[in-house]
Write the structure tokens for this entry.
Amino acid sequence: MATSSAKKTAEGAAAAPKKPRATKAGADKEAPVRKTSAKAKTPVEPAPTSAAAVPAPEPAAAPAAPAPVAVAAPAEEGAVDESKIIQMKPPIQVRDLATRLNLKPFQLIHELMEMNVFATLNQTLEEPVAKKICEKRGFVFMAEKRKEGGGVHKVAPVVEPPKPKPVPSANLKPRPPVVTFMGHVDHGKTSLLDAIRRTKVAAGEAGGITQHIGAYSVKRGNQSITFLDTPGHEAFTAMRARGATVTDIVVLVVAADDGIKPQTLEALRHAQAAKVTVMVAINKIDLPGANLDRVKGQLQEQGLAPEEWGGQTVVCEVSATKGTGIEKLLEMIGLQAEVLELRADPAGHARARVIETQIETGRGPTSTVLVQQGCLKVGDSFVCGPHMGKVKALLDDAGQNIKEAGPSTPARIIGITGAPAPGEEVVVVGSEREARSIMEERQEAERVARLATGPAGTQGNVTLENLFASIAEGQKKCLKVILKGDVQGSVEAITESLKKIQSQKIDLDIVLAAIGPISESDILLAKASGAVVIGFNTKTDNSAANAAKREGIQIKLFSIIYELVDQVKEAMTGMLDPELRETPLGTAIVKKVFELSKFMVAGSQVQSGRITKSGRARVIRKKQPIYDGGVVTLKRFQEDVNEVRQGLECGIRLGNFDEYEEGDIIECYQLEKVPQTL
């Protein structure tokens, strides 16, 4: 068998010269190479047989054959010399990049200027710019990032928790419905929830207005219902939107004596955008001014036709103060939940949404969350936005310790490293190490984005085009504020309200917006930045009060958002310099110029109004003003007077002006200070 194979191989080698791609010598040299392929049966014996079958030509007659090395060992496509690879971890500073490129910093700065990028030694560069510079120098730039097990590799998207896998239907179990009460201010949302929970929450709210979201669980027979109470004030639009996105059923509360209001429509739009079931509770039906038909007519105009009117919207008539219709409302909520067939997987790693965040004395940051799937247990490691944590304790809505929280269960988490924003997703991961790795990657991404945009959210490079705009911005007055609040949602809502204060004359700079009591570090920050400290539903530490008195820093505490925003507006208005407004008094024409020993006097006649010594005057010649100044001397014959009226003659001397001419017009006016508005 081996001899037969060798014979066939020799015949193939003898026929090789007929192929146009190689000579006999080339075929003789290529034979061993071709026989190393997977098709070769015997890799060693055919070579000498092939050589014997083909007569060797004259050495001088052999043309130069192609180098077989390129065929035997081809280079890998896309391979790059490792010495030409530059790996750097963002942020990329000009100084560091110059060192890696073996350049003097000024050389790199010069090349950047040619690319219309004006940077200093310590300034950071964007990754595309660094890549262009490296390519120009023959290098390959690769950004770095940390791996969980150490080392670096090419930059990739920020590490995210594993996406939830589809849950088999057999693992899905019925869960309680999440119901959100939404509506206009003072239409009785919280009072209605109080009647359901038999508590007195509204009495503890400043001004009777809900200032943050509350999450409560209510038992009705064998069924549990989770209620979310969202604020009704217009400043809490984002919080109400958040309430709509985590809910299954929205109960739109409308006062029977007031009807649909702008915030009622706004709440309805949030619910419709979230594509959730909408029910209507017409509250305050016991009041004398209640008009149910009018309210139902308004609902029908908004596409919420009541069932008794032939529509599909469940409308319940209730009274929060007297308890009328509460049982029917709960019954209809239960029926809606059955129709929706709400299910979730109660096992596995939990995913939840942050409803509210606060800082508690002795506990640090705590977050009220609503579990959406899985089971949140004590000891779980999790990530939440740029923060991480380990569940040290879980509290229910009554403040009692619990060991776990299932789907649609509100709970307060203790053990988070920071204060996440409401609406952030809490994701339980396998280990604390994994949670820390994800947190570090997210924080690094935020830091790089912040450095790229600069402290004010814009590029920090100054160009000739924006130089004068920057100078003008620097000349504007600015009210700096340090804001501390009780919960994250309130701080966020106040911040948005303050940012809506529009003014071309003064800026509002929120130096710090955080939750917790006012501390001494806040006072020191206010001293360094020239800011005022505002607290909302929070207290002031003793050390902070002493530091504020010592440093002369003003602390203002508020419990109602209306008052806070109004006070800030008044403070901004008070910082504006009053405008100087001219009030014309009269005009005079120069009839003759009198030359005295030391100065000139304009002999004039008042044409209109009056000329006063306390006012200012300007000289107008050929319709052009040539001088503006105060009235130094005003005489009537030989006597000094304070005022000369129309038709009378007088002598006028203005400041140090001596170049009067006959026919000049002297305009007298008065400057008034008028307070500015925003």
Summary: Residues 282 and 317 are 5 Å apart (CA to CA). The two ends are 102 Å apart (CA to CA). The chain has a mean pLDDT of 77.
